[in-house]
Amino acid sequence: MPRQIVFTPKAAKPPATYSQAVKAAGLVFVSGTAPHDPVTGTVKGVTIQEQTRQCLTNLAAILEEAGSSLDKIVSATVVLADEDDFPGMNEEWLQWFPIDPPARQGAKLPAEIPGLKVSIAAIAEA
């Protein structure tokens, strides 16, 4: 399968420096997905739970466009602006992945972006 760029208007538009996702080698590699509203482009939500929900909503739309889904995620990376938000992010995460969750790692956001609390990247089966 040749490398395929994935884009959907149902998720926030990425900057020109990267794609929403790339489908290759039977996998979908989703770039870090922020809690931006697909229509307005602004950060949606003020709590970590709301922002995590929007990230996962965007991620689900991207995966659907690629012919995949959240339940096919094998690995995810959650990047937080504030490590104190970890429990709240986990609270929302468990609503989406109550059983057999994907492998996951965490990181700290390397730059301060006003209003942004979380970004989530994922690798899923195509």
Q: What would you say this structure looks like, in words?
A:
The chain is of the alpha+beta class and 126 residues long. It has one domain: 60s Ribosomal Protein L30, Chain: A. The protein has helices spanning 48-65, 86-96, and strands spanning 4-6, 21-24, 27-33, 73-80, 103-108, 118-125. Strands 1-2-3-6-4-5 form a 6-stranded mixed β-sheet, with helices on one face. The longest helix is centred in the middle third of the chain and has 18 residues, at 48-65.
Describe how the helices and strands are arranged:
Blueprint (H helix, E strand, L loop, with lengths): L3 E3 L14 E4 L2 E7 L14 H18 L7 E8 L5 H11 L6 E6 L9 E8 L1
Parallel strand pairs: 4-5
Antiparallel strand pairs: 1-2, 2-3, 3-6, 4-6
Helix pairs in contact: 1-2
